[in-house]
Q: What sequence folds into this?
């Protein structure tokens, strides 16, 4: 008879990486980015404290892959313009207890407040509805080329996260953001290879 695992037991991922325990700090949107969209020292300090709390995995809040499309005003963006030294300080703080630190990569799609961007993009030109039109503009359907470029942005952000010391990546595919929009038959009414 095998002994059931407990939350304090380590866990080995398929790639062989061992996570110290089964406690995970889920992603949240901290909004502690600087005006240049790099992580602030406050963000690094918060994650240093969470790391010392003993979680096996810390998942960052929304790290945007496109600085023209933010979910909130003080989001961090990870792209070729980012100051990787600030991301390294953040990752060093977040892994200071030997734990994992995964970057949650995101694009809001049409869920971008109008005061941040009056011309959001989405799979299709379908508004959020439910009276949200005052706060969120109707999106423009992305072109095939824009979709391919955006896929590249996610890849670039993942590469830069690894270079900066993050130990993993999580693609945000929920809560109505862009990946979720592509998966929803209500938000994605395309008839090309990106729909259906």
A:
């Amino acid at each position: 008879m095998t002994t059931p695992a407990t939350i304090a037991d380590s866990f080995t991922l398929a790639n062989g990486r061992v996570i110290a325990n089964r406690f995970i700090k889920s992603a949240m949107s901290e909004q502690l980015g600087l005006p240049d969209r790099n992580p602030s020292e406050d963000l690094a300090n918060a994650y240093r404290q969470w790391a010392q709390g003993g979680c096996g995995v810390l998942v960052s809040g929304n790290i945007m892959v496109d600085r023209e499309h933010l979910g909130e005003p003080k989001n961090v963006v990870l792209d070729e313009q980012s100051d990787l030294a600030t991301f390294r300080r953040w990752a060093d703080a977040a892994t200071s207890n030997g734990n994992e630190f995964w970057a949650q990569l995101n694009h809001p799609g049409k869920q971008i407040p109008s005061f941040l961007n009056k011309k959001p993009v989405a799979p299709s030109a379908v508004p959020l509805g439910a009276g949200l039109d005052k706060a969120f503009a109707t999106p423009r359907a992305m072109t095939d080329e824009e979709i391919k470029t955006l896929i590249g942005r996610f890849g670039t952000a993942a590469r830069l996260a690894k270079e900066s010391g993050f130990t993993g990546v999580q693609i945000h595919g929920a809560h109505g953001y862009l990946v979720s929009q592509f998966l929803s038959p209500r938000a994605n009414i395309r008839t090309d290879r990106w729909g259906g």
The chain is about 25% helix and 15% strand.
